[in-house]
UniProtKB/TrEMBL annotation:
Major localisation: membrane
Domain Hydroxyproline O-arabinosyltransferase-like: from-to ranges: 55-348
Transmembrane segments: 12-34
Coiled-coil intervals: none
Alphabetic keyword roster: Glycosyltransferase, Membrane, Transferase, Transmembrane, Transmembrane helix
Protein name listed in UniProt: Hydroxyproline O-arabinosyltransferase 3
Membrane topology qualifier: Single-pass membrane protein
Origin species: Vigna radiata var. radiata (Mung bean)
A Pfam short name: HPAT
Species classification: Eukaryota, Viridiplantae, Streptophyta, Embryophyta, Tracheophyta
GO MF term set: glycosyltransferase activity
């Protein structure tokens, strides 16, 4: 009798355990399905928000030899990458703010605009960038609904999709743009009634993918904020060479615009070591190494690549590759420069000041 009761209790416990295991398995399966559906719905919603996925690539530049050779390399890689699977690049425009045509008009699609009135930039030539965009947006026939604001020292290393969704632009976050640490200065341009300074994104205008209609609203404000910042001695001293970047960030915040911050938008050798799935190489920093492949930043290396070494004319073809042990990002950069220069005509003679 006792044995039968014990067996019955064991069967009851086994049955209860089976029910519980079935419940948890079913719950997890349903949760996974619901999560998958939610992800699918989010992706579908994002696709619906992209009424025109193509974006126009726009780069502002001068007619200096320094800008010209960089633009030639940039445009070479744009043409190679734009047709690759995953790319949503549209047309390309070099917005030339020197006020006159130059020798690259037939090679690179170019729209000539006027520089700021003489002396207004106070020698800070990038103040011409927002003014160039205002003129281009007013006068050019831009077919795409979105715009990528880029710079001459950008190389497209992977096919770039449209990272913006609807009215939310996409931007790269810069570690040195720190609104919270500069609140005192920024309050001159972003008053307290507008909200906390954390509304100001840690970005510049480039790289940014943004809806054209939204850029048309922001650009005039960007011009005005840039000029006001340059006229203010405290702000000019605080921000220095990144003043125009802060001006774009403030102008966007004044219009209530927040950007989707994408660290994969860009990599910057020598600090970013691998290309991986990032889209743009920005070669603004000098790359200096000893022959052991060790970084000697701040000290001229036994091997180096620095765009500022070529202010008066283009780098030579077939640059020597870095020593063994140098990060893949730097090796990739030099190989891409070498490929472009090997295939661009009159490379050694066309772009000299």
């Amino acid at each position: 009798m006792i044995v039968r009761k014990s067996v019955g209790r064991v069967k009851s416990l086994l049955f209860l355990l089976t029910v519980l295991l079935f419940f948890f398995a079913t719950y997890n399966l349903v949760a996974m399905i619901m999560e998958h559906k939610a992800d699918g719905l989010e992706q579908s919603n994002r696709k619906l928000m992209r009424s025109n996925a193509k974006f126009h690539v726009a780069v502002t530049a001068t007619d200096s030899a320094y800008n010209q050779w960089q633009c030639r390399i940039m445009y070479y890689w744009y043409e190679k990458v734009k047709e690759m699977r995953g790319s949503e690049m549209g047309k390309f425009t070099r917005i030339l703010h020197s006020g006159r045509p130059d020798q690259l008009m037939d090679e690179i699609p170019t729209f000539v605009v006027d520089p700021l009135p003489e002396g207004l930039d106070r020698g800070y030539i990038v103040l011409n960038r927002p003014w160039a965009f205002v003129q281009w947006l007013e006068k050019a026939d831009i077919q795409e609904e979105y715009i990528l604001m880029a710079e001459p020292d950008h190389i497209f290393v992977n096919p770039l999709p449209n990272l913006a969704y609807g009215s939310q632009p996409a931007a790269y976050p810069f570690f040195y743009i720190k609104p919270e640490e500069n609140e005192k200065v920024l309050r001159k341009f972003y008053p307290e009634e507008k909200g906390p300074v954390t509304n100001i994104d840690p970005i510049g205008n480039s790289p940014v993918i943004i809806k054209k209609s939204l850029m048309e609203e922001i650009a005039p404000t960007w011009v005005n904020v840039s000029l006001r910042m340059k006229d203010d001695a405290e702000t000019d001293k605080a921000f220095g060479w990144v003043l125009e970047m802060y001006a774009y960030a403030v102008a966007s915040a004044l219009h209530g615009v927040k950007h989707n911050l994408r660290k994969d938008f860009m990599l910057q050798p020598p600090w970013d070591l691998r290309v991986e799935d990032r889209f743009i190489i920005h070669y603004t920093y000098g790359c200096d190494y000893n022959l052991k492949g060790e970084l000697t930043y701040g000290k001229i290396g036994e091997w180096r690549f620095d765009k500022r070494s070529y202010l008066m004319g283009p780098p030579p073809r077939n640059l020597p590759l870095p020593p063994q042990g140098v990060p893949e990002s730097v090796v990739r950069l030099v190989k891409m420069v070498n490929e472009a220069t090997a295939n661009l005509p009159e490379w050694d003679s066309l772009n000299k000041s």
